Amino acid sequence: MEIVIKNLNHIYMPGTPFERQALQDLNMQISSGSFVAILGQTGSGKSTLIQLIAGLMSPTSGNIQIGSYHLTPNSKERLAVRKHVGVVFQYPEHQLFEETVVKDIAFGPRNQGLSEKEVTERVQMAMEMVGLSPELGDRSPFQLSGGQMRRVAIAGVLALSPEILILDEPTAGLDPHGKSELLNTISKLHKERQMTVILVTHDMNDAARFADYLFVLARGTCELEGTPGDVFKEQDHLVQFALDLPDITRLINQLNRQIHPPIPTNIFSMNELENHLIERLKKVVSL
Predict the structure, then answer these.
(1) What is the dotted CATH code of the domain comprising 3-243?
(2) Where do the ABC transporter domain residues begin and end (predicted)?
(3) Residue from 262, 286, 258, 283 nearest 273 by CA
(4) How is residue 171 annotated by DSSP?
(5) What is the reported pLDDT for 146?
(6) pLDDT per position as a tens digit, 126-149
């Protein structure tokens, strides 16, 4: 489902001394089946935006079109949109509450009115999608590791079969291994199921490595957008928004001060960089 956002504004507590404009004349387009990252510092409007896309709030003005649905200030389509959009908020494991893993994942589908057979199929599918062993099904989610608990929470969202998956800082608090495992799982899901994925993150490394397209938010509007290669060329702009470059881009910039021709700056994994340098070395040796 394509997402088209036009002239979107959202004001919290309008007409009071605490009035605050979170989004201002925001325009964005997210292609169906894409993997995008939304970047920005705290207060840039990221969390407000994803809640509006998910139909959890109504905008003050403007329009969000999701497929054939329109979310406007007086729209009655928010409930319908929620059936197509799954949201994984920060530390989703804090929302686990059932006595077993299977029961927790089954909660959403069961409340959609599905038959027990369909619920069981959805649970099995979701556990497989996030790499949870069937043997864990009867265990309490609170007996699992932090990474496994987060997978249970994400499986609970995936069991609803959303066409759009929104992840708000999904790796917060995980160790490097757990972080890498989780993002690789999400990337695999995106590729296998052509699911639209919206990743909200502060981590430039994750954005560069996994997303096809980036949106940089600041002061409630989209200040910069493009492929990772395009966005991370704009170092001066990123500094203005208190955002850094990915580690690998900073490494390539350092290398480019000493070698010629320069290494392309649209390389975002160490494997790609190693392969590029090996190919360059082969050409030098063959001369």
Answers:
(1) 3.40.50.300
(2) 3-244
(3) 262
(4) T
(5) 85
(6) 999 888 999 999 999 999 988 889
